[in-house]
Write a structure and sequence with these properties.
With 170 residues, the chain is α+β, with helices and mostly antiparallel strands. The protein is 46% helix and 11% strand. The chain is built from 7 helices and 4 strands, in the order ααααβααβββα. The longest helix has 20 residues.
Length: 170
């Protein structure tokens, strides 16, 4: 099933096409790895909705990426609960260990580092989202272990003939 068919099938579950924008964006992002302008326009055209509605959602929610991201997108919460529990120091540690600044991607394409306003997991602050998974009660040792684990997963993926720089789901 191609992207159009998947979006049309998802949209059929909603009484209003506008309500299907988020599921359609998730489908498109899985297909393309990120959501550049032409993909956003294609989603709007498939759903027959205003393009601005699609752009609004794609640029508001941190789960959507309008620019390419690494194989692992590290999204560190920098809201007040996480900040009070050391997220600023953890950001500095991540930048140093990865050799990139916030918003950057490592040269090997493995990691993109971002901060997000709130992950809604204050009870396990400081918290970071990697893909669909939350990692909480973080300190530098836990971050280093997580990065090692992710590198091992990437090594297994590339060892299996998968391209680490390919979009997720490719």
């Amino acid at each position: 099933m191609n992207m159009r068919e998947k979006i049309e099938a998802a949209a059929a579950r909603y009484p209003d096409q506008r309500s299907a924008i988020m599921p359609a964006l998730l489908i498109a992002q899985k297909e393309h790895g990120h959501l550049p302008g032409p993909v956003l326009e294609e989603v709007a055209d498939i759903l027959d909705v205003e393009r601005i509605w699609v752009y609004e959602l794609a640029t508001f929610y941190t789960l959507f990426h309008t620019e390419p991201v690494g194989m692992f997108h590290l999204q560190l919460c920098d809201n007040v609960s996480c900040m009070l529990r050391g997220s600023e120091d953890l950001l500095g540690h991540l930048e140093a260990v990865l050799g990139i600044k916030k918003g950057g991607t490592t040269p090997d394409g493995l990691f993109t580092l971002s901060t997000v306003e709130c992950l809604g997991a204050c009870e396990m602050a400081p918290v970071m989202q990697v893909g669909d998974d939350y990692h909480g009660d973080l300190d530098t040792a836990r971050i280093d272990m997580l990065l090692d684990k992710l590198r091992a997963v990437a090594g297994q993926a590339t060892g299996a003939g998968l391209d680490a720089s390919a979009p997720p789901g490719a």
